[in-house]
Amino acid sequence: MKYIIAIIQPDRLDEVMQRLEEKAIHLVTVTNVMGRGRQKGIAEVYRSHREAGTLLKKVKLEIAVNAEYVKPTLAAIIEGGRTGQVGDGKIFLLNLDEVIRIRTGETGKVAIG
């Protein structure tokens, strides 16, 4: 079992979600977040004052998958999220020791769905 965290551009969310749906990956948590990477934000002019915008709007996807869904999930995120520009995002792949479905008490692979 793996836990996938992906940080992507907000305008790529629909494309990523469509690619995940095509690969039968339905269980996704999405959160609006702010952050910065190598581009270090963007500067904006507001009322003739230049303000450094150090944080950019991003979207975080969190997906728990069984082993057979890891590669399709990563492929869907990369295909849907890639623009080729700086700031496309990152994917973090973590081992998932245990999952418990609260409603039934099921654990492990069965609890993921």
Q: What key attributes describe this structure?
A:
6 strands; 113 residues; single chain; alpha+beta; 4-stranded antiparallel β-sheet
Describe the protein.
With 113 residues, the chain is α+β, with helices and mostly antiparallel strands. It has one domain: 2-Layer Sandwich (Alpha-Beta Plaits), CATH 3.30.70.120. It has helices at 13-22, 70-81, 109-112, and strands at 2-8, 29-35, 42-46, 49-53, 56-65, 89-95. The N and C termini lie close together (11 Å).
Work out the number of β strands: 6
Helix content: 10-25%
Number of helices: 3
End-to-end distance? 11 Å
Largest sheet: 4 strands, antiparallel
**Low-pLDDT stretches:** none
Under the CATH scheme, the architecture is: 2-Layer Sandwich
- Structural class comes to alpha+beta
Our estimate of the beta-strand percent is 35-45%
In N-to-C order, the SSE pattern is EHEEEEHEH
Mean pLDDT over the residues: 90
